[in-house]
Specification:
2 copies of one chain form a homodimer.
Chain A: H1 3-28, E1 40-41, E2 47-49, E3 52-53, H2 54-70, H3 75-91, E4 102-103, E5 109-111, H4 116-133, H5 136-152, E6 170-172, H6 174-185, H7 187-190, H8 192-210, E7 211-212, E8 217-218, E9 221-223, E10 236-237, H9 239-255, H10 259-276, E11 288-289, E12 303-304, H11 305-322, H12 325-341, E13 353-354, E14 360-362, H13 374-387
Antiparallel strand pairs in A: 1-2, 3-4, 4-5, 6-9, 7-8, 10-11, 12-13, 13-14
Helix pairs in contact in A: 1-13, 2-3, 2-4, 3-4, 4-5, 4-6, 6-8, 6-9, 9-10, 9-11, 10-11, 11-12, 11-13
Family (chains A, B): Belongs to the N-acylglucosamine 2-epimerase family.
GO molecular function (chains A, B): isomerase activity
Protein name (chains A, B): N-acylglucosamine 2-epimerase
């Protein structure tokens, strides 16, 4: 891509974020009576279910606080973030301070705190809102939640874990992956010395245990020794997760000046995207089996918005860091695919769930798992990445193989 | 359908059962080293995963014992049933006598006894095998498991239930539905007085609580008072479950001579099939939302083998009981659809999972949820139903509205 193309893309994503996507959530998602957000929204923006899912409540707080911090000090945005934070603060936690999975519209707990990602997105939310407000209370919620996540990380599901201890212990990719992003995002709150201690272990976990040297792929579940385990869970690959984590790693590589990590992320991103791409109908599969067997997930062949958007962020960042033309080509291919299939030509916001052929499987704009997060975050990240005046890697000479120094 | 057509269909399903489907499981599923069955089998019959899922182990024991009891006293069939029963007896239960969800190939427990349907299919298996062998041990396992199910039925997931008590208590359709079939199947073992006490409550639960008078549909989850609850779970309809339960109810109606129940089942079966039918591509949807909103299940639009086969059984039985031409028409439409899309033209056994358009989504013949059960049971039930010399309702004059007398 030449500079004028980069600028055009940047402007397009900026406009899509500010004139299309954010207005959708501003207009339709705020619950002005009970606080928090509606996320189950039809194509047009009508509320079809009022339950409140803590993942999505936290993510939307983070989103609006982040826009307030990084784009413009709009009071509306801060108010929307505070509306969600207030609801979460009042109703979101059980007696032990763990975050519920879901609440009724009024805030009565529905589903117990079995899902540690509720805690991850709550910590992310309150950390970002602390930056916006300076509120010590928000900082304290972010910090205590973060440390509770670290304490729970060996047994994230706690008493709700249905596997028999010892028979086939597996570790899952999602938590270390999210912690890479969360730890960097909370660096101001936790202190840079703390994150500098935690982050290298997370990176090493991903690139040593989950990364498979012989195939260049990353598995969703491995043994505690980082070995492939031939079972449904062990064979599972989630190309979207892998690519999302690769831009988290690239952000960390830039932060810690680690050229070697950039190269690993670049290689893994390209290998995994090639592996996950549907050669017949285009788009990236949701799930694949490492050995090519039938996955247990019936939704395996569907095309999900976040998978494609996270890959685009990763390709954009990778291109700016390495200049690798393959990243630019992939970015453009994914851009074409996504604007053709995920963008709704009639109403604001994007479709989330397509069938294998790229037709909408559900026309909702938000649901139990899709909220104000992946679409606007991707618009923001792509806009900022492609419009940065020079590559993020400002002085490539200073980026050395410094991973071991982390 | 005229008599010669009925006979032709009956012969076709008999042949498919005995020459195609059963040979597949006989040849590929038996684990001669560790006992039990492999169920994860590719299109050609190769084992791609060796885990043993208790639902499917129990169902296969039942299937082969049932064939031995009702079709022919083949030693191979009894041996296959005993091979699974022996494995289950040794490894299938935890210390409290509840049945695990899954085991390793060798029988080491993998997933805890959180799923009461493991117990249902184990009880069904040992009950049927008792009929084949007269073994008091098998009878005792069936009886004790059955009573443990009844004890657990208010809280079937036990400690693994993630919902917060009291906020939105829902009861689920699957257990009373399965218990209708299981109770009748265990009548010899439990004693007819016992089942005659239990069954009317099950029927009333289904046709009063889950059945919605105003729409004629059956919901998958309702409040404890049998009311619609506007939430993802409350709006869920599973047309396959409904139709499967309708033939369970028709079997009970015949057993207890209840004309009124036949009429209710007939009406519900036709209404629900009409509701579940995909007018665009044919076939019956896997899940639908009662209010037409997006379901949370991403697999909602897929066409599953058991949904279609269970509906065919129900239509065949209903036609023989009522002579309703709509049932005959639906049977023929489903027959055409199923033989065109689910039957594998090259290898034995049938495909299980099709996309909305009717193309195979997974080409497996068996997996974590598909075993030696719905295909052979449907072949058997359709064969027997359509070849019965006169309608099952042998003397319609004796079938009166005797439900209250049950």
């Amino acid at each position: 891509m030449i500079n004028s193309e980069l600028n055009q893309y940047a402007a397009l994503y900026q406009t899509e974020l500010l004139d299309n996507v954010i207005p959708f959530w501003t207009e339709y998602s705020v619950d002005k009576i009970f606080g928090g957000y509606f996320t189950c929204l039809t194509r047009e923006g009508n509320v079809f279910d009022t339950d409140k899912f803590v993942w999505l409540q936290g993510r939307q707080v983070w989103m609006f606080a982040m826009l307030y911090n990084n784009v413009e000090k709009k009071k509306t945005w801060l108010d929307i973030a505070l509306n969600g934070a207030d609801f979460l603060k009042k109703y979101g936690r059980d007696e032990e301070g763990n975050w519920y999975f879901s609440l009724t519209r009024e805030g009565i707990p529905l589903i117990q705190a079995y899902n540690i990602f509720s805690d991850c997105f709550a910590a992310m939310a309150f950390g970002e809102l602390y930056k916006a407000t300076g509120s010590e209370e928000f900082k304290q919620i972010a910090v205590s939640t973060y440390y509770q996540i670290l304490e729970r990380q060996e047994h994230p599901k706690g008493i709700y874990d249905k596997s028999v201890p010892g028979t086939r212990p597996l570790i899952n990719f999602a938590l270390p992956m999210i912690l890479c992003n969360l730890s960097l995002s909370l660096e101001d709150v936790l202190g840079s010395q703390t994150t500098a201690k935690i982050v290298p272990e997370l990176i090493s976990n991903i690139m040593t245990n989950f990364y498979q040297e012989d195939t260049g792929l990353i598995l969703e579940n491995v043994s505690r020794e980082g070995k492939f385990v031939d079972s449904f869970e062990g064979r599972l690959i989630s190309p979207g997760h892998v690519n999302e984590s690769m831009w988290f790693l690239m952000d960390l590589a830039v932060r810690y000046n680690d050229q070697s990590l950039i190269e690993q992320a670049e290689k893994t991103l390209l290998r995994n995207t090639e592996f996950g791409w549907d050669k017949k109908y285009g788009g990236i599969f949701y799930f694949l089996d490492y050995k090519g067997y039938p996955p247990q997930q019936l939704e395996w062949d569907q095309k999900l918005w976040w998978v494609h958007l996270e890959t685009m962020i990763a390709m954009a960042k990778c291109y700016k860091l390495t200049g690798n033309q393959s990243c630019s080509n992939w970015f453009e291919e994914l851009h074409q695919y996504s604007w053709k299939h995920f963008k709704d030509p009639e109403y604001n916001e994007w479709f989330g769930y397509l069938d294998r052929r790229g037709d909408p499987l559900l026309t909702l704009k938000g649901g139990k798992w899709k909220g104000s997060f992946h679409v606007p975050r991707a618009m923001y990240e792509i806009w900022k990445t492609l419009s940065s005046p020079s590559p993020l890697q400002k002085d490539s000479a200073t980026l050395s193989n410094s991973r071991n120094k982390l």
